[in-house]
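re the bet — no i am not wrong, look at it urself. input seq straight from the record:
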Amino acid sequence: MRTAAKKDDNHNSIIRDLIKIGFSVMETHQLGKDKPDVVIALGGQTAVVEIKNKLTRGKLSTGQSDFFLLWKGKKIVAYCTGDILKEWGMR
C-alpha cells in the first residue's frame, strides 16, 4: 500500500498565494512521485508545476525530469510564488 505523497514545506503557502492572485489550482502531488505537484491555470493558460524546497534548492528527480521532457505544455519548477509569477510574465 502506497503512503501519502510528501509535500515540500513551502507547498501550502504557494498554493494559498496562487489562489489569492486568482489562479485555478488542482493539486496532483498524490498521483505519484514523478508527476508534478500542481496544475495551475489563469487567463486561458495552463501549466504543470513542480514545487521544490526553497531552503535546500531541491532538484528534479530523474523521473520528474523525464516527465518534464515529454510534457508538451508549459511547465514550471518553483521554489516560491515569485518563480511562478515570473514564468507567467507577471513580474
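see?? The chain has a mean pLDDT of 89. told u. also Strands lie at 24-27, 38-42, 45-51, 74-78. so pay up
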